[in-house]
Amino acid sequence: MKNILLSLSLIFLISACDYSVESANAHSNPALTASQYINYSENTHRAELAAYIGVDPKRTEWCAAFVNAVLTESGIANNALHQHPYAARSFLDWGTVVETPIPGDLIIFPRGNISWQGHVGFYLSTAIINNTEYYYILGGNQSNKVSIDLYRATRALGIRRSIL
Questions:
Q1: Does residue 45 sit in helix, strand or coil?
Q2: Fewer beta carbons under 10 A from the terminal one: N or C of the chain?
Q3: What is the DSSP letter of 50?
Q4: Total domains, the chain
Q5: Using CA atoms, how far apart are residues 116 and 93, in angstroms rounded to an integer?
Q6: What is the average pLDDT score of the chain?
Q7: What is the pTM of this model?
Q8: How many C-beta atoms lie closer than 10 Å to residue 27's C-beta?
Q9: Residues 64 and 72: beta-carbon distance below 8 Å
Q10: In this structure, what CATH number is given to the domain that contains residue 63?
Q11: Which domain holds residue 124?
Q12: Is the Cβ–Cβ distance between 27 and 74 less than 8 Å?
């Protein structure tokens, strides 16, 4: 119940925010688009996810594929032309570098012990827990599903915003 309330309150937050503070634009907020898929699991929604992201979520680390699909659905240029479009860290080459995230920005984190491994998801908001800053990230392949999880802000490798 706590996770459902958190998800609903964050979806409300996403929908109330503009994607770009710099200028009005016709693009949808990608975090709002992504929120439609919350709780889609690679186990119970395998076929739907595979059709949406273009890879089998049971056989592929799919966070980057999910981000690319959401960006496409939102009318925003994705990372599909990158040499490694399904690698989370490839999003370090996407968009514009920003220092302070706003809802809908992409944040890239390390994962595992190998330098090319990573995780990418959509920034929702910031929380301070026990004097430590965390980001709420909406992403795919978080506990094998689309979900909202907390990530320590200091672990972020980069914050990227769509080029309008």
A1: coil
A2: N
A3: H
A4: 1
A5: 13
A6: 86
A7: 0.85
A8: 17
A9: no
A10: 3.90.1720
A11: 2-161
A12: yes
